[in-house]
């Protein structure tokens, strides 16, 4: 660990299929464990407010729409700088609060960089032919380099699902390794698109291959699949990163994305990280939530905590 409490870039390992090739995930057991998580901790009142404030610091506030504009990105960045109204911050005893990062398409990176100047909030960019990842590899690598050149300090890459579905793990490792190199100093989050991988066993294996290839984070989904982040999938990925950490001493982050819309969702995933990994994995350098509408519901719940009343959603500024 560095002096500022964060972790160095992941180096990964050589390709070691023995770490995952004989693994088989019991779906029923994973679903039972995941179903038990929301009831394992009762977090109320001030403690709940503190957890929700922590969740805000872990959000990758995201816009990935076909009609994104510079103006929309600027509004998103304004919300990222000030995710809670000043009166709520004061009532909660907080001096300041920001989100974990802002995530946009590569062409929107310069707008985000300019809007976030001086804030310390990282700019993340999707790349590699997001969301399908089916463009030629040289173009995917060029897109990573473009986003980094524009100022992105975090890159969310997508894997080639065919390689996972056909068990061509060596080819998947080689591609992700090249993507990792193209990222340079930028942190790399590997999106597994778990809704396309069919089985939890494939999810575990893809997680392990991505970490061996040097991913700093493993991420569930693009948000564009038919099924995105679920607790059983997330549990499987978290167990994989725990196993990887036990073998290598490298601490890899985790990012659920897609379908997390409510404050209760944020609490459930924080509970997963607390139960499975401990408090250290509830910090933004090791845990992120990819979301767009989630922040609005968290702000609404915190206003209820402060005032005892639920406000209309339109009382809160939109990102």
Question: Mind explaining what this structure looks like?
Answer:
The protein has helices spanning 27-36, 45-57, 70-81, 86-92, 109-115, 137-149, 161-165, 169-183, 200-212, 231-248, 263-277, 294-307, and strands spanning 59-62, 101-104, 123-126, 154-158, 187-191, 217-219, 253-255, 289-291. The chain is of the alpha/beta class. The chain has one domain: Aldolase class I (TIM Barrel), CATH 3.20.20.70. An 8-stranded parallel sheet has the order 7-6-5-4-3-2-1-8. α10 (231-248) packs parallel to α11 (263-277). The two termini are 34 Å apart. This is Deoxyribose-phosphate aldolase. It catalyses: 2-deoxy-D-ribose 5-phosphate = D-glyceraldehyde 3-phosphate + acetaldehyde. Its EC number is 4.1.2.4.
List keywords for this structure.
319 residues, lyase, Aldolase_TIM, disordered N terminus, 8-stranded parallel sheet, 12 helices, alpha/beta, globular, TIM Barrel
What is the topology?
Blueprint lengths: L26 H10 L8 H13 L1 E4 L7 H12 L4 H7 L8 E4 L4 H7 L7 E4 L10 H13 L4 E5 L2 H5 L3 H15 L3 E5 L8 H13 L4 E3 L11 H18 L4 E3 L7 H15 L11 E3 L2 H14 L12
Parallel strand pairs: 1-2, 1-8, 2-3, 3-4, 4-5, 5-6, 6-7
Helix pairs in contact: 1-10, 2-11, 2-12, 6-8, 8-9, 9-10, 10-11
Pathway: Carbohydrate degradation; 2-deoxy-D-ribose 1-phosphate degradation; D-glyceraldehyde 3-phosphate and acetaldehyde from 2-deoxy-alpha-D-ribose 1-phosphate: step 2/2
Family: Belongs to the DeoC/FbaB aldolase family. DeoC type 2 subfamily.
Pfam family, one: DeoC
